[in-house]
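Dear support,

Our group has been running a series of protein-ligand predictions, and this particular one with cobalt (II) ion is the one our PI (initials K.S.) wants archived with full inputs and outputs. We had some confusion internally about which version of the output was final, so please treat the block below as the authoritative record. The input we submitted was:
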Amino acid sequence: MSTEANYQELFALQHELQLLGSIESILEWDQRCYIPSQAHEYRSDQASYIALMRHQKGTAKRIGELLDGLTAAGMGASLEPRDVNVREWKRDYEKRCKLPEDLVSEMTKTTSFAQSVWGEARARNDFAAFQPWLEKIVALKRREADCLGWEAEPYDALLDQYEPGAKTAEVAKVLGDLRERLVPLVKRIAGSSKRPDTSVLRRNFPPDQQEEFGKAVATAIGYDFTRGRVDETTHPFCITLGPKDVRITTRYIPDHVNGALFGTLHESGHALYEQNLPAEHAGTPMADAVSLGIHESQSRLWENIVGRGLPFWQKWFPSAKDHFSELRNVSLEDFVFAINAVEPTFIRVEADETTYNLHILLRFELERALMNGDLKPADVPGAWNEKFKKYFGLDVPSDAQGCLQDIHWSAGLLGYFPTYSIGNLNAAQFYEKAVVDIGEQEDNFRNGVYAPMLDWLVKNIHSHGRRYKSADLTKHVTGKPLSSDALMRYLEKKASYWYGV
Ligand code: CO
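Confirmed final output from the archive:
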């Protein structure tokens, strides 16, 4: 058979996987947004049935034969769209085939039970109850890493699932460097006599007004509601249900404006990436996102670099005052200082953009040690609290506010945390390069003009799909490897403006 016929057959098989995957996503979206409380059990049967079908079809021998044939014919070697597709389909196929079914089902069973144990353990501040489950999960993850294969250290195999091509040692170097620069910056800010009044963010903000305002902002930055929608959930997320269906969720807290405001901007940033992947390559890796880290760079860019900037609010604050009467006696400067408050706190999801990365660093260091066997699950609380004191200068009052706060480990998501910081670092590095390419954007933001920014992101990042690996994309776009320089320049400039340090 000709290469063309083989490629078309492979495309058709991949299309089936894509359809099954998007059906799984619809089930998941409904389960997280609207499902009645008693319907979860049947839904989980539906979801595992489709997942099993997808796994069986996705590991079919025929896919392997076609991939081998195409590779032998020289495909997969260049950066042309079809070559990229063959290369990435091969990567996905090999990964799927490396994981034995008994491990996959053991992992699903363990993590689904561990999550409920974790929920109770956190509520009762009882690490001992969670410890045996953490031990099980770490053991399973080490087995998973061995199945996937690794060279330098097992953590590489886990990281690679979320950030393809990333190496633990390289990420550790960038994050370690960031830590050395962040810890003193956070200290300097703590020593400043300037303090924002964050109580202005905790007034009465009617949810229907939050919804209207959030939708107006999302539309303005380019989110297309004819190919998406916004719903309400406790934990905001963005999910793609098909090439023309990218949905987001947010939350409306009546006495705290941040949740909806920045939740909506963050998820819209993710959605802009998904909505602007090249439509002509739909159904192939050329129309997929690169990695979680690159995805997070898009959300953080809109949420923080654009959405927490003074120019953005010079445009939007008058409208915010129209929506929220309790902001009418607040000045623009006081409001923007409040949304840029920097303060060490115990909970990651409530952290500001400066201290946030220290939360990630701590988790990354502990995960790496767990996977290397240098840290025993039993010693996690002690190690957590010691690092927390070192990085934040605070004594952790309880495991519930310490090592038990995140759902990730109970869900088996080891290797996931560093992608948040990879996102923050990339956001700053991309933005600096965008300014070099298309000029300072502050006047545009002051006037509510976002198209030049979005167009730059589409051209330089979205349009490539999975053509480049995360680290190569950073280098290709910015001309430099990922480093802490751009993010530190950005955070230091803010600290100097608001805190005078
Ligand atoms: Co995100």
